[in-house]
Amino acid sequence: MTHLKGYGWGLGSVLLVSAAQLLMKWGMAQLPAIAAPLPFLAALRPHWPAALAVAVGLFAYGLSMLCWFHALKRLPLSRAYPLLSLSYALVWLLALLLPGFPDTFSAVRLLAIGLIVVGVGLVCATPRGG
Amino acid sequence: MIDYLLILVVSLLSCAGQLCQKQAASGVPRGSRRRHLLVWLSVSLLLLGLAMLAWLAVLQRLPVGRAYPMLSLNFVLVALAARWIWREALGSRQLAGIVLIVAGVALLGGGA
Fold first, then answer.
1. Residue A45, C-beta contacts closer than 8 angstroms, at least 6 positions apart
2. Which of these, B103, B15, B21, B68, lies nearest to A122 by C-alpha position?
3. Angle separating helix axes B73-86 and A107-124, nearest 10 degrees
4. What is the pLDDT of residues A10-50, one digit of tens each?
5. pTM, to two decimals
6. How many Å apart are CA A64 and CA A87, to the nearest integer?
7. What's the CA gap between A94 and A86, in Å, rounded?
8. How far is B31 from chain A (nearest CA, A)?
9. Cα–Cα distance between A24 and A60 in angstroms, integer?
10. Residue B56: which of A28, A96, A120 has the nearest Cβ?
């Protein structure tokens, strides 16, 4: 039962961090370059929906870390960590499907993310050999 | 070029932040345990905050579906740090995983 709850918290964390990335991306894309802090800050009020999206995204990111903390109480790190790679695939997919994101489909990108998901699973597996 | 340097900076800062969390949780305190936790967690928070600022800059420059998976570089950095700092095992599975992650990140960096 503990593991099940752990996966629950882990999936919650994955969903939240994915939403966070999409919100932050959508918001930041409409704001001036953050490398120039003063114009950036000045734009927050007139572009308040974008600023709000970034703020909600940061909040969602914080919530995802809380869920992650709860997941780690019930799951060993080697089981929890691979869940994070699911968020890479989820963000890729949602950025493709949702309007407002410039992402286009690329088979090479799909391959790259597949390599990364498998790679993360291997890195997190119990050590063997070496 | 700047984009990839920024992603590397995000990775290094967030990796350092995670390592500070690990040190907070499992390091041996020289003085009081509470002070040990406070110092390491504060440094971790600062590093993660800086990483987030750099990340927001990345988001303005690259599509999120391409940039975000490149943060998997963190897994490689943390695994290597665990090997070098805490002497944790890095077996053949880990090495194979690292190769795959680096290959995936390289494809993304190359424009995928």
1. A51
2. B103
3. 20
4. 999 999 999 999 999 999 999 999 999 999 999 999 999 99
5. 0.91
6. 11
7. 12
8. 26
9. 10
10. A28
Q: Which two tokens stand for residue B55?
A: 């990340």
Of A95, A103, A112, the CB nearest to B107: A112
What letters, b where the CB count within 10 A reaches 16 and e where it falls short, cover A93-130?
bbbbeeeebebeebeebeebbebbbbbbbbbbbeeeee
Q: Which of A72, B35, B61, A30 is nearest to B70 (CA)?
A: B61
Rounded CA-CA distance A59/A62 in Å is 5
Q: B28-53 burial, b for 16+ CB within 10 Å, e for fewer?
A: eeeeeeeebeeebbebbeebbebbbe
Output DSSP code: residue A127: P
Which tens digits make up the pLDDT trace of A51-76? 999 999 999 999 999 999 999 899 98
Please report the ipTM that was assigned to this predicted complex.
0.92
Whole-angstrom distance, CA of residue B14 vs CA of residue A120: 17
B94 vs A81: CB contact, 8 Å cut-off? no
> Under 8 Å CB-to-CB from A30, ≥6 apart: which residues?
A47, A49, A50
Give yes or no for B26 touching A (CB within 8 A): no
